[in-house]
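Revision sheet: structure tokens.
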Amino acid sequence: MRAHNSTDRVTPSHAAWRKSSYSCDSAACVEVALSFETVGVRDSKDVTGPTLSFSADAWRTFIAGVQAGDCDRP
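Predicted:
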């Protein structure tokens, strides 16, 4: 995954964040925000805290791996 400079980052003031329907059954709930070329991920309990920022291509690769079972625990 490539690093982004600060102008590429998804920030709360510039994004529409939504909670993941898969993670909210537990205390570990995450929110995702999409922009043109970047996907942001943050902790829903700490919306002013740090965010992770991924390129759209890296995010698609991650989602494909999750759907293929690559992230399943043994």
